[in-house]
Amino acid sequence: MSDHTRTDLVTLSRHVLAEQRAHKDATGDLTLLLVSIQLGCKFVATCVRKAGIVNLTGLAGDTNVQGEEQKKLDVLANEIFINSLRSSGKVGVMVSEEDEEIIVVGEKDRDGNAHSYAVVFDPLDGSSNIEAGVSIGTIFGIYRIQNKKGDATAADVLRPGREMFILTHNNIRIPKRGKIYSVNEGNSVYWDKACTEYFTSLKTRTKDGKPAPYSARYVGSMVADVHRTLLYGGIFAYPADSKSRKGKLRVLYECFPMAYLIENAGGRATTGSSPMLDLVPESIHARSPIFLGSEEDVKELEALYAKYPQKFD
């Protein structure tokens, strides 16, 4: 048999069960929750693969709470994850990009307490790119419910991102510095001075007297852009601007999970003026500017924001 053929496969289920066995106090609740998320991902992936031949592409005819036109797959993926998470029996409250209000699961455990976890998620990030065949994916974050004696509420998710649970792998490390930047330069006319100066500097870098600019890579799907940044280093940015003064990306189910992932891999995430994960969201669909990636790249950006505090004319 070829040495290149791996037969000892590490699946998500196997990894999660191994982690559970390694913690003697583990109850298995988080394992069941992660398995339900895995099931939802498999179901959605199947729907995405066959979307073009079963009429699942195109608009559903509605808009979500963000004012965005919903795709048919947005609606389907949202229903799949809600049902999958509810069936785990471990979720007390959910927040979805597609629903205006929090989703409270009224069921209690056998002791009459609220279930253990709160889950926030974007069921299908990058869905505007579906017809183009661009990478899309699901973003989720998991919090432990604070007060299990009462009903789960929005307070269980309106917390700093550092309190989030997320599955990480110890060996994944983002380079200290990269050579790639990822930002929608179509919005550059609306940027503040710090942002404009920073990205201009990336395009005019030199090394040994020769041009050495960073490469631009922007898919427009956060899951794809951040995944590439995690692997190769550099910086991903979605700044606030004069058109979207509070930023565009949602804190709970876009900024926090990605920032947590990057920081656990040795990178850095910021709003420009403060650490991303220290932010306390004011509402379940609150927005924020975000910059994340290699530590040295992000620190350069932060230095410019210290020099030029955010200001829009």
UniProtKB/TrEMBL annotation:
Q: What Gene Ontology molecular function terms does this protein carry?
A: fructose 1,6-bisphosphate 1-phosphatase activity; metal ion binding
A GO cellular component term found in this entry reads: cytosol
Catalytic reactions of this protein: beta-D-fructose 1,6-bisphosphate + H2O = beta-D-fructose 6-phosphate + phosphate
Q: Which GO terms describe its biological process?
A: fructose 1,6-bisphosphate metabolic process; fructose 6-phosphate metabolic process; fructose metabolic process; gluconeogenesis; sucrose biosynthetic process
Instruction: Describe the location of the Fructose-1-6-bisphosphatase class 1 C-terminal domain by residue ranges.
Output: 174-305
EC numbers: 3.1.3.11
Q: Which UniProt keywords apply?
A: Carbohydrate metabolism, Hydrolase, Magnesium, Metal-binding
SUPFAM superfamilies in alphabetical order: Carbohydrate phosphatase (SSF56655)
Instruction: Name the family the entry cites.
Output: Belongs to the FBPase class 1 family.
Quaternary structure per UniProt?
Homotetramer.
Q: Which HAMAP family match?
A: FBPase_class1
Protein name from the UniProt record: Fructose-1,6-bisphosphatase
Name its species: Catenaria anguillulae PL171
